Structures are given as structure tokens and as C-alpha cells.
Amino acid sequence: MAQKLAFGPFRVIQYRILSRSQFRRTFLLAFQAGTPLVRSLFASLTLLAMAVAVPVAVAQKIQLSVDVSRSGTKIDRNLFGQFAEHLGHGAYEGIWVGTDSKIPNTRGIRSDVVAALKALRVPDVRWPGGCFADEYHWRKGIGPQRTVTLNPNWGGVIEPNTFGTHEFMDFLDQIGAEAYLSVNVGSGTPQEASEWLEYLTTAQPTTLAKERAANGHPAPYKVAFLGIGNESWDCGGNMTPDYYLSQFKIYSRFVRNFNPNQQDKQQMLKIAVGPGGGESRWTEWTEAIMKAYQNHTWSWDMNGLSMHFYTVVKWPPSYASVGFGETEYAQILKSTREMNDLVEKHSAIMDKYDPGKKVALVVDEWGGWYAPLPGSNPGFLAQQNSLRDAVLAALNLNIFARHADRVRMANIAQMINVLQAMILTDKEKIVLTPTYYVYKMYVPFQDSTFVPIAFDAGTYTHSDITLPRLDAIAAKDRAGKLWLAITNVDPNQPAEIEVSLAGINAKSAAGETLSASKVDSVNRFDAPNTVVPKPVSAKAQDGKLTLELAPKSVTVIAVEQ
Ligand code: AHR
User: Which of 114, 144, 224, 511 has its CA 20 to 30 A from that of 345?
Assistant: First the structure.
């Protein structure tokens, strides 16, 4: 990797004090040349200067260099995927309000949420879980009569099944995203899952296809991604790697996609359950799955290995999502950087068995997981979303982009009202979070081409925590325009940066920057614009861009030539 993330000093304090001999010479010359009045003036000024001689701090510019002719891997747009589980107010209220609701909706799906998500160009949505997926039975969520069940994983509340297969696919249609279905391996059967896929995808007049048509959708649906189980080592059934593998092979063989448009191009990609951490338990899991993959036969296949990693610091989640200070800011950001090590650790194992990188590492659950909001149902995983989460999101997206040859899909947890959400709703009210704005600012990076960027990150230190102060990625979009995303982690100091550009004649650069007064600044229903992007521009001269980044900020700029 061309990136240089050295922990060098970012600021040079230059003490501009004349050396003793220079000082003496200057003083004597002036003293000898002047009248008594001038002499006494010189003497007093000199004494004053000596008394108040203070260091003059000159902030050294942080140098970044980008050579546009050296482009790398595609940054797959699926790195910006979402996850919507039947959990708390994620699906119900967050997406589904029902056709009778006073909240403006299209066929029961709230219109404000759809409009906000369209601006993010959401590539795919993982659904219906999470742990919920391994207890989900799709038949209960189709047709005019829905079966009312329970959601034992998440607060034991009623699951009305009113938001089912057709409603989810309609929602995807409205926001323009692909389906990433998680099928039930824990408490379901291969037959149940294979019938679900037949129901969804066949164009032939089977009984299931006719039932789909009777339920309002004669044309087959497209299912782009299929997750086979979820955390099968834990809430998905406490399986050993070998047991899971035997299940995976059966599901991979029999859960077919029959959509005629997905037989050649756009084939459905099958994603296996992967690790949930970096300890030996997880590396052994990755080893077992990838070793089996290496020897797989025609009758089963795998296109992705999932990985889950939450920024939580300690379990159960106890960090506050709002009302915290710099210590918690630094601790959470230190913890989130473990994502890099995990990606590299599991990629190295995958490289052993799959050097051609056919299998993607799919980070389909990630984000900050904090203590439930006071007064909320703890099973609903409701939390606020602060400027810290914006910085956290940018750092993780940058990690994924730097490993885009292997990490080709990621789904932040979760889209609305749950964990590190894009959107918070309360009945008819809606607010867009700082994380939402990072995703919006990063839209140009979807399906862009990674361009290596070299920089000295410098350091930010708080108490016993030292972090790289700066993080940055660069990429060319599909039209060839160069984009830079630069994060200043330091919550106290602005960063003067100078970007040297080779292979491009930069005339100007402009974009948006996201910051706020406090590390825990949040957007609220009654104050929705506390953390919103503001326009920013850089000075372009002699092949260099200069700009100042606010403390604790995420900035995305496009370079015009
Ligand atoms: O995102 C919340 C839960 O976290 C998911 O349901 C589960 O897969 C994970 O443990």
C-alpha cells in the first residue's frame, strides 16, 4: 500500500529567537549609531523583547501527495450498503407506517425516509436480520392474512409481519437498491429457503409464481445477494464451523435463483457466515470455511464471507451515544481502528486459500454500538448519533476503500432508528444523522477507482491514547474526476493541509465539510442542523491544493481541472 501513515510530529514550534552573537551584534550596532535618546529607546526595547521572548508557533502544513496516473482497485458501491432488521423501530415506524397512516407514505412506506435514502444512492439493503433472520418464516409475511408472531430476540414484542417480502421489495424499488436477503438456517429448512427464492424469482408459471402474482407481483424479483445464515456461531444456532459448513453446502446447492435475467450476468452472490472478531476462535472459523472453499466442487459455491465487527469497547455496550467528552471520543475512535487489523487478518487467511480474491470479505454488520438511550426499550438498540459517529464512519469507509480488492461489500448497522443509524424518526418527525451526511458526501466514491495517496498522518494524543491525526483517501469517479476525502481526527486543532497533485492540472477544488462545536454534537428533531455539511473550497496553485480542515471534521472535495 502506498499510504504512509507514520506517526510523525504534525506541528513544528519554531523558536524565532536570535542567537546570542547575532543579538549582541545587532544591539551594539544600533546602540553605537544612535543619539542618547535612541540608545535608551533601543535599550528599553531590547530588555522588553528579552522579557517577553515567547515561542512563535508556526503550524507546519501536512503534506499529502496524489499521483492520478497510479490508479488502483475499484471501490465497489456495495461498500456503502445498509442493514435493516426487524428490530425496535428499524422496520416498523422507520420504514413501514402502513397505508392508513397520517404520515405521508407510498403503499405504506414512509415518503420522507424514501426521499432521504434516495439521496444516498443506497446500493443494497440486508434484510430481515441479523438474529431475527434465523427465526423468520417468510410465509407469515405474504398475502392478505398475516400471521402475528413474536420477536424474541429484540424485546419480545409483537411481530405483525405486515412488512414482509413484497413490502421490502417495494421499499427497495422506491429507493433504487438491490436485495440482500438473509435466509433462515438456524430454525428454518433448506426447503423453506428454496421455496422463498422460487416464489421470488421464477418466471415460470409454478404454483408459487402464481401466488406471487396473486399477491401483486407477476414479474420475477431480482435478488442480488443471498446471506446463508447469520452469526451461526452464536444467535444463529451456536454451530461449529464444520456443522455450519455442512448446512452452507446444502443451502448453496438448493436455494436457487430462477430469475432469467440473473442466469448469466448479475448472478446472485452467496455469502457465508464468517468471523465476528480477531481471536483464534474467529481465525479458525475463517480457516475452516476458506479451506473448504478451496476444494469446493461444482455443486456448491460461495462468493462472499461475512464479517461482523462493532465498535463497542466493552460488553455489554455501555458508552453513552451523547453527553460524553474527549476521553470517550478518543477511546471509541481507537477501538474502531481495530477494523483495519481484522480486515487484514482475515484477508491474509483468505489469500492463502483464494489468492485470486474470488471470494469477497463482506463486512455486513459494523458501526458504533452504545448504551441504549435512557427510557428506551433496551431490546430496541436505540442510540443517538453524534459527530463522533461521523468521524467513525469515515475512518471505516476509508479502511474498506483501502482494502477494496478484498472488501467488496459492507453494511452499516443499522439504517434507521437502530444502532449507528442514518435516520432517526419519532412518529411523523424525522432527522438525518451526522453518519447520514458522511454517506451522502461519500456518494462520489461509489464504484470509483482508488488512487493511492501518501501522507504523514501525524498524531493526536489524549491522555494515554495516541491516534493518527489525519486520514485520507483519493479516488477517480466514473467520469474521471478526482475526489479526496480527508478526516481530521484531532478535536482541538485545525489542520493546514497541502496536497501535491501529479498527473492532473488542478484549477480549483471544492466540496463539503462536516464538523460541529463538540465531539458529541447531534442533530435533534427540534435542532436538525447542528451537524450538517458546509461548503468548502481549496486554493489551487502550482499543482498544489491548500486548505484548512476544522478540528474533528470530515471533508470531501472534488478537484476541477
Ligand atoms: O445488529 C444487531 C445484532 O447484532 C444483529 O441482529 C446480530 O447479527 C448482531 O449480533
Answer: 224
